[in-house]
Amino acid sequence: MADKPSFLFIFGTTRSGKKLIRSLLDGHPDVLMWLSEFPYFANFKELAGTSRNASVFKMNHELILPAFRNYVEKDSDTIGSFNFCIFQKELEQRQDEEMDATSYLYYLFQALQSAHNDYRNKPVKYYAMICLGLSMDWNDRALLESDYFIFAYRDMIKSYESTRGKQLAKNTSLYSFFNPKRRKSALYYMETCKLFSDLLKERLHTVNCHIVALNQMQQNPDNTLANIRKFLSIEDHPTLSHLTVFGEPYKGNMQEKSLNQFKIASRPSKIMTPLCSFEKRMFDFLDLYSYESETVRPNKKFGFIAMLRSGFSSAFTEIPDNKVVTEKNARKIVIHCRRLLIFIYFIVTYCAVRNVPFSKFFKYKEDLYIRAVKDPEYWTTIN
Hints:
The chain is of the alpha/beta class.
C-alpha cells in the first residue's frame, strides 16, 4: 500500500451498525478514525457552491471547528489522547488557501493525526470516517476507484423499524412520524432505503467495497471481524475487541439500554411498537435489494384500492391511542381527527413513492443528501 493513507468510508442506512464498525476500528494503529458521522462531501459542496475549490478558512470556521468544539468538554481541550488546541493550530496553517474536496480532506486528517498523541508521527494505512452515503458524489470515478468502502448492511425494513422505534422513544407520535412534510418522516426513510438499495446493488461486487451485515456481526463477530481485517489488510489488535470513540470507552448505541455493554451485542433491541400492515405492504412494494440473496425482492402488487384498505385498517384499528398522541388524557375527538390525518398521510406517502404528480405538493421538502443523489446537476462545478 502506498505511503499516503487511503480513505475508508463507512456508510449504510440508519441503525445498520455504522457506529459499531467505527467504534471497533477506533484505536487500531492502522486506522485513524474520525470522531463522528460526517456528511463531508455534501457539506463541502454547499460551501464551495459551483466552484471546485472551497476556502480553507470557511471550512475550518463554519464547519469543522464548531462541530469538534461540541465534543470537547467545556473545561478541557482534550478527548482521550486528542488535543483540540493542536488540531486548531494545525488547521490554521493554510487557512488563506483554497482546496478541492479531496485535498482538504487529507489536510483535515493530517491535522487530526498531528493532534492525536496515539497517531502523531506514526504511519497509518487509512483515514476513516462514517460518511453518509447519500452525501457522496457517486459519479466521482477517481474517488470510487482509489479508496475503500464498508457498507453497513441491515435488512431495510429492520433498519426502518429500528429508526422508527428510536423516534418513538423520543416521545414522537406516529401521527408526527407519518407526516410526509416532516423532514425525517416515514416517507423520508422509505426513500432513503430505496436509494441505499440501489447503491448496494451497484457497489456490491466491486473489489474496494466490503459489506458488513449487522446480523452476522451479532451472531458471529469473530468471523465478521476477520473478514474486515482481510479486506483492509490489517492485523488483529486488542482494540478490535471493545468499543471506543477516540480511545474513550463507548457503551454502544442500542435502544435497549441493557445491551450497551462496551462490546458487540448478541442480538438487536426488542421492538416495542410493531409496524402496521400499511408499512409492511409499502416495503414489499419498494423493490429493495437483499444482500443475503443478492437479488431484488419481487415487487408485491399494492394497488390503490388495496392501499386504501390497508391504510384505513392501520390508521383506525392497528395503531394504539398512545402512539397517535403523546399527550396524556387527550380527548377522543383529537385522537379520531389524528387517525384520519394519518390515513391521509398514508395516501400521500403511497402516491409520493409512486411519483403521482399531485403528491409533490404534499411531499416533504427533500433534504440536502437526497438531493445530492437524485439531482444530476447537484455535483456540477465550474473550474
